[in-house]
Design a protein that fits this description.
Blueprint lengths: L5 H10 L13 H6 L1 H18 L22 H13 L7 H4 L1 E4 L11 H10 L4 H8 L7 H13 L9 E4 L5 H11 L9 E2 L2 E2 L6 H4 L1 H14 L6 H10 L6 H4 L6 H16 L13 H4 L13 H8 L11 H4 L2 H8 L24 H16 L10 H9 L4 H11 L10 H7 L1 H9 L14 H9 L13 H18 L5 H22 L23 E9 L5 E9 L5 E10 L4 H18 L5 E5 L2 H7 L10 H13 L3 E5 L6 H9 L9 E3 L7 H16 L1
Parallel strand pairs: 5-8, 8-9
Antiparallel strand pairs: 1-2, 3-4, 5-6, 6-7, 7-10
Helix pairs in contact: 6-7, 11-14, 16-19, 20-21, 21-25, 22-23, 23-26, 25-26, 27-29
């Protein structure tokens, strides 16, 4: 085979369409044609190397391509976790490190897929030399079982593996010589470990701080662009919460970030919050830990990255043993006994106690990490009265976000006041006292303000008992205008009179209120003459059983009640029972439905309509919506009973037609224990509601 000439190579290069898809480095055919005189020697050297060794440079055929694959019932997170577990095994100290390899395949692009056997025959027919054909084919006849698996994968996926872009991971104890043999047989010459899989590093060997440093780089780039603009505190708050904190969330959903990475990210966010421009670091008036507190407790509601990371990784699941009295102390026994045991047809299941449905949610997990786990590990102390009420008032004010952040800084003493106290600026200096005196806000007797900033703020922000003319809603705007005018005087020498300060505050407030009315006009709700629903008797030969629950969030007790009546409205049976520590009203009602169904079955009734005023529970029982994990064992018991009694029906009816059951449920709070109680005669405390329902039935029969 004769040597390749530079003229032939040049002809091929200039035959490339100059505007076709560029390489990942953004260089298309036009680049190589434009700079041919400069690059021709290097290109020629690469071509000659190929004809000498039969191997192309590793990056010669790289291109930009995005592939997305979806597998039914599988999350993208499943693929990431499986891949990392698979790649972790060869680096462990067990048998995997000596015998196992992992292969990361890259699918060929459409123009890379060639029927190689056909190509070889075509080249031979066209007269290509044997040496040339071998260079093109680079075939190895000693393919083992791995290649057959990869071939079957090609057929099953209708794709062809691109071996040049694929990589191989070796167990750490596989000898170098054996590695070379495997790579040669498979035709895969790239060793994995530094690639990207589904947006994350495919291997976490070595320093995790080094591997995850890309998070800091991405965050730094994003924040650096914003530092060129002057942003208000409200805008910064939105950007940090809605944009910045979402950048590491994807990674934190799979892996626990090292503390070093968390500190680096927090440092960047804290600098962004406190600085006014990219040149200065700014004065950090409060630690980041303070800013992560909820707004109603003095913080700004930013996420604590370590706690949020733990919440994203979901909680560990544990199970309790049954021999409670022989194993656990009394205080633990009480907590375990508070868990309502299920019957023989209810399967055990995992639930999350800190959400209404029993599903684990990152929001509730973060709350537990911050308010239960962290609180139990920290020393509790009180150095001043709680300011939570004041913080709650600030964030609920009908005012511009800049006012909210200004008042937050006042309470936290983080205003840049150059040594002057915030209390003196806003309340005690002679100019300020004059402003308050001419304002429509009620001031202390003789204008003597307290030495406590918090006491003064509480006074002016809690004037609900004043007449309308006092304009108590002016307070936040007046505080803001006092601060603004003070700065105008110090830095620009502009002096505002006390009346003009009050007038400007009123103007600011009215402008804000008018703007809100235009953007959010009040929508008047249409009035309907709603007819109150009444209890209705069941069809002939049927029984109707109504159930309801009584539950209070702040109490440890709850109760259920049910009543069964015939077609004439006569009571057959009623039941009341108390429960302890049930998490929601719907859980209480579900326990009531289960109990009434079991009771009516034992009493021998065959045709029963069960009414409840919980629409969502009715949908779950009838299979019209997903069953909550917390309710799953209860509903499984209900389903079993319904399957054995085909003439049992669960239906929804409004609370107005379910008042008798509701009255019985409330009676549970007067019981001395949690034992169930049945009635076959209408008790005196139920008669008023019962007679009202029955009178409606009698009227219907008379009509």
């Amino acid at each position: 085979m004769r040597p390749i000439s530079i003229e032939e190579v040049r002809e091929v290069v200039f035959d490339i369409n100059p505007n076709k898809c560029p390489r990942p480095d953004c260089m298309n055919g036009f680049f190589f044609q434009q700079f041919w005189e400069t690059m021709s020697a290097n290109i020629m050297k690469m071509v000659e190397e190929f004809f000498r060794t039969g191997k192309l440079e590793e990056d010669i055929n790289k291109t930009s391509i995005c592939l997305a694959a979806f597998v039914e019932d599988r999350l993208i997170s499943d693929n990431i976790l499986v891949a990392h577990e698979l790649l972790h095994a060869p680096n462990s100290n067990n048998r995997c490190s000596k015998e196992h390899i992992a292969i990361k395949t890259d699918l060929s692009k459409a123009f890379d897929r060639v029927e190689w056997s056909f190509l070889e025959k075509a080249m031979n027919t066209l007269g290509f030399s044997t040496e040339w054909c071998k260079l093109i084919m680079q075939s190895d006849e000693e393919l083992d079982h791995i290649l057959s698996i990869l071939y079957e994968y090609n057929l099953a996926s209708c794709q062809r593996i691109n071996y040049q872009k694929s990589s191989i991971y070796f167990g750490k104890n596989i000898p170098p010589k054996r590695r070379e043999e495997i790579m040669l047989k498979l035709g895969i010459y790239h060793i994995g470990g530094d690639g990207i899989y589904l947006g994350l590093p495919d291997s976490y060997g070595g320093s995790k701080v080094s591997v995850l440093s890309f998070l800091k780089e991405i965050l730094e780039q994003r924040l650096f662009g914003w530092q060129n603009r002057f942003l208000s505190p409200g805008s910064k708050e939105v950007l940090l919460k809605a944009v910045v904190l979402t950048l590491p969330t994807y990674t934190m959903s799979f892996f626990l970030l090292p503390k070093t990475i968390c500190k680096q990210l927090i440092s960047l966010m804290s600098d962004f919050w406190w600085r006014n421009n990219k040149e200065s670091r700014g004065m950090h008036w409060k630690a980041w830990g303070h800013l992560t507190q909820p707004k109603d407790r003095g913080g700004l509601g930013f996420k604590d990255l370590e706690d949020f990371n733990m919440a994203l990784l979901e909680p560990r699941k544990e199970w309790d043993v049954k021999l409670v009295r022989n194993v656990f102390p009394i205080e633990i026994q009480e907590k375990i006994f508070a868990i309502t045991p299920q019957g023989q047809f209810g399967d055990d299941t995992y639930t999350w106690d800190f959400s209404k449905t029993g599903h684990y949610k990152v929001k509730s997990g973060y709350w537990v990490q911050r308010n239960i786990i962290n609180t139990s590990q920290q020393q509790q102390y009180v150095d001043q009265p709680s300011l939570d009420g004041l913080y709650q008032q600030i964030w609920k004010l009908n005012a511009n976000p800049k006012i909210h952040h200004f008042l937050w800084k006042c309470v936290n003493d983080t205003l840049p006041a150059a040594g002057e106290s915030v209390n003196h600026i806003l309340f005690k200096c002679p100019y300020t006292r004059l402003v308050w005196a001419v304002s429509p806000i009620r001031v202390p007797p003789n204008g003597e303000w307290s030495d406590s900033l918090y006491a003064n703020l509480y006074r002016v922000m809690n004037q609900q008992d004043q007449p309308e003319s006092s304009r108590a809603d002016l307070v936040p705007w007046l505080l803001w205008r006092i601060w603004k005018n003070r700065n105008e005087f110090l830095f620009k020498g502009i002096d505002y009179s006390a009346p003009s300060t009050v007038d400007k505050a009123l103007e600011d407030m009215e402008e804000w209120i008018g703007k809100n009315k235009k953007e959010h006009p009040e929508v008047k709700k249409a009035t309907h003459n709603k007819t109150r629903a009444r209890w209705k008797a069941p069809p002939t030969k049927w029984i109707k059983c109504n159930t309801d629950g009584a539950w209070h969030k702040d109490q440890q007790r709850s109760g259920v009640g049910w009543i069964s009546r015939d077609e004439y409205g006569r009571m057959l049976w009623a039941g009341v029972r108390g429960f302890q520590r049930l998490g929601s009203r719907i859980e209480v009602v579900a326990e009531g439905v289960k109990w009434e169904i079991h009771s009516m079955r034992r009493l021998g009734y065959k045709q029963v309509i069960y009414e409840t005023d919980s629409l969502f529970l009715t949908k779950m029982i009838n299979g019209h919506t997903e069953v909550w994990p917390k309710l799953q064992p209860i509903i499984q018991e209900i389903h079993h009973t319904l399957s054995e009694n085909p003439h049992y029906k669960i239906v929804f009816y409004s609370r107005d037609g379910n008042m008798a059951a509701y009255r019985i449920a409330k009676e549970a709070f007067s019981l001395q224990n949690h034992l169930p109680k049945l009635y076959s005669i209408v008790p005196d405390w139920l008669k008023p509601v019962f007679e009202t329902d029955r009178s409606d039935v009698n009227q219907n029969f008379v009509g």
